[in-house]
Amino acid sequence: MKYERRLSLALLSCAAAMSTASAGAHHSFAMFDNTRSITIHGSVTGFQWTNPHVYLDVDAEDGPGKTKHYTLEMTSPNMMSRGGWSSRTVKPGDIVSVIVSPLKDGQAGGLVLVLTLPNGKKMLPGVPNADRYKITS
Question: How far apart are CA 38 and CA 100, in angstroms?
Answer without folding.
Answer: 5
